[in-house]
Amino acid sequence: MKKKNRIWFWLSVLFILATLSALIVAIAQNKPQGSTTITGQEWFKGNPEAEVSLIEYSDFQCPACASYYPLLKRLAEEMGDEIKIIYRHFPLSSIHPQADLAAQASEAAGVQGYFWEMHDLLFEKQSEWSGQKNAKDIFIGYGRELGLDIELFSADIDSRAVKKIVSDDKISGNQAFVSGTPTLFLNGEKINNPRSYDQLRQLIQNELEK
Amino acid sequence: MISFANLSKMNWKNKLIYLIAVLALIGFLDSLYLSASHYSQSIHCSIVSGCQEVLASPYSEIIGIPIAFGGVIFYLFILINALLYIDQPNKWSFRSLAYIPIAGFLFSLYLTYLQFFVIGALCQYCLLSALTSTGLLISGLRLAKTESKKYPSVKNL
What is the rounded distance in angstroms from the CA atom of residue B155 to the CA atom of residue B157? Predict the structure, then answer.
């Protein structure tokens, strides 16, 4: 090939490679923005009219979520008038085999109005059922503890409607580029998980003052 | 140079080198994306869930360097050699294209094994890399077979 052509060949190779690489790196570094529209159908704590919302994507079988649970519970108790804290399911079923079932159990309890009670129990007693083959029986035991209609509860755990709620949450999490649990969205914006309660509270304060 | 303008008239032997270049480019961009995501700690996976498990697993890096970065080097090396070969067929590029993908394929096989049997989760970007490295292995070996007369040292491949 002619010398001039070779120069053009290698220049265009260099140009194309550099452009594509820059593009790919830019895409990869694009921090996910929450496409987290609140539907009004989800479970929440706090003030439904609050201007600041915190969405938590969580997995009942994830240890980090269980250690986050007291923080969010305290937040709801202390700042419940000013914020709305929403719980959404994001069971990582591939590493947490009982996570889907646990999410379904919470929703089945929710059918009878006991979502948060079951939510609390599942996190508090995570080590009791996590990894257990008979997790469903344990959940039914919790249902009994909460005084649920057990027949209805055990039918609801596997019902199509309940499964759909869980999978809809999962889809919304995927759309919002949730990549692990717990993931928090403050007013639709993904935030790095605060390391302490005070940090979490401060973040909410800042958002309230905006 | 193997002319790009005459691609349609080319015999399949010459097309093979373009196939290698395209596969290496795909692999390069794929592993570049994985490396960059490793540092920004966010990855867009909406097709299959599981990439977060794979990419957050201890197998995703060796002494702080993401494994995907090895992929970047490997594919870039193959890509450059394919381009050098397109520019001017030569012995060293030819050998790289024939032999190096064997190592890439074996390593990719190991990573796929890890995903299936150790981590128990799949990452589509890693699987894409497994596909491109398999493609490079096959086309590298085919290239070796068809071109070995030119370079007798690799006749026995």
Answer: 6
Q: How confident is the model at residue B117 (pLDDT cuts 50, 70, 90)?
A: confident
Instruction: Decide if A35 touches B, using CB distance below 8 A.
Output: no
Of residues B13 and A75, the one with the higher pLDDT is A75
Q: Is B52 on the interface with A (CB under 8 A)?
A: yes
Q: Are strands A183-186 and A189-191 parallel, antiparallel or unpaired?
A: antiparallel
Cβ contact A1–B46 (<8 Å): no
Looking at per-residue pLDDT, the higher value among A184 and B43 belongs to: A184
Estimate the crossing angle of helix A115-124 against helix A99-111, to 10 degrees. 150
Q: What is the pTM of this model?
A: 0.54
Q: Say yes or no to pLDDT of A2 above 60.
A: yes
Place of tokens 């929403």: A86
**Up-side HSE of residue A156: CA atoms within 13 Å toward CB?**
26
- DSSP state, residue A58: E
| Banded pLDDT at B157 (limits 50, 70, 90) | very low
Q: Residue A111 and residue A151: Cα distance in Å, rounded?
A: 13
- Taking a C-beta distance cutoff of 8 angstroms, is the pair B41, A45 a contact? no
Q: Most distant CA pair in chain B: distance in Å?
A: 49
* Interchain CB distance below 8 Å, A25 and B44: no
Task: Look at A84 and B117; give whichever has higher pLDDT.
Answer: A84
A18 lies within 8 A of chain B by CB: no
Determine the pLDDT at residue A36: 67
- Per-residue pLDDT tens over the stretch B17-72: 899 999 999 999 999 988 887 776 556 554 455 666 677 677 777 777 788 889 99
Report how far residue A88's alpha carbon sits from residue A80's, in angstroms, rounded to the nearest whole number. 18
Instruction: Report the SS3 class of residue B78.
Output: helix
Nearest alpha carbon to residue B83 among B73, B69, B97: B97
Question: In the numeric block, which tokens belong to residue A161?
Answer: 């409607």
How many residues does this entry show for chain A?
A: 210
- Quick one: fold of B13-154? de novo design (two linked rop proteins) (1.20.1440)
Give the Cα separation of A166 and A170 in Å (integer).
6
A-chain CB neighbours of B46 within 8 Å are 174-175, 177
The yes or no reply on domain A44-209 and CATH 2.120.10.30 is: no
